[in-house]
């Protein structure tokens, strides 16, 4: 019997959709193109900043090419971005909502930022 999608009740053929593993593979391939571009930008010096994680990994690649392959570097970039994005976003969201629910603490935070950073520049 043909497999049906839980959400629609249609077979995969009927809905024209692809299996999860096929979609995952496509997302992986698209992401790889993106990381590859990022790597080439750094390799060609088009990025402007030499003090980046990718730049340091590319420098290590020159002395230890067997360890720091393009594939490993792309994996590390992906790991950092995936591990570091949603965790940080959610933490900030929770911090801000907790502060909004505790105006007296919010005031302390604002005062501390004003004292250390002032009002004429952004946090770097
Ligand atoms: C609020 C922020 C974050 C939380 C709550 C969080 C939480 C965690 C937890 C629970 C683990 C698993 C640790 C273990 O069981 O061994 C982990 C691993 C990891 N996290 Fe985070 N993380 C946060 C932010 C980040 C950021 C900003 C980055 C990178 C830019 C990052 C990169 C990683 C990596 C690479 C690992 C795997 C480490 C390993 O096993 O070698 N995380 N994180």
Automatic annotation (TrEMBL):
<keyword id="KW-0503">Monooxygenase</keyword>
<keyword id="KW-0560">Oxidoreductase</keyword>
<dbReference type="Pfam" id="PF00067">
    <property type="entry name" value="p450"/>
</dbReference>
<dbReference type="InterPro" id="IPR002401">
    <property type="entry name" value="Cyt_P450_E_grp-I"/>
</dbReference>
<keyword id="KW-0349">Heme</keyword>
<dbReference type="InterPro" id="IPR050651">
    <property type="entry name" value="Plant_Cytochrome_P450_Monoox"/>
</dbReference>
<feature type="region of interest" description="Disordered">
    <location>
        <begin position="1"/>
        <end position="25"/>
    </location>
</feature>
<keyword id="KW-0408">Iron</keyword>
<dbReference type="InterPro" id="IPR036396">
    <property type="entry name" value="Cyt_P450_sf"/>
</dbReference>
<protein>
    <recommendedName>
        <fullName>Cytochrome P450</fullName>
    </recommendedName>
</protein>
<feature type="compositionally biased region" description="Polar residues">
    <location>
        <begin position="1"/>
        <end position="19"/>
    </location>
</feature>
<keyword id="KW-0479">Metal-binding</keyword>
<dbReference type="InterPro" id="IPR001128">
    <property type="entry name" value="Cyt_P450"/>
</dbReference>
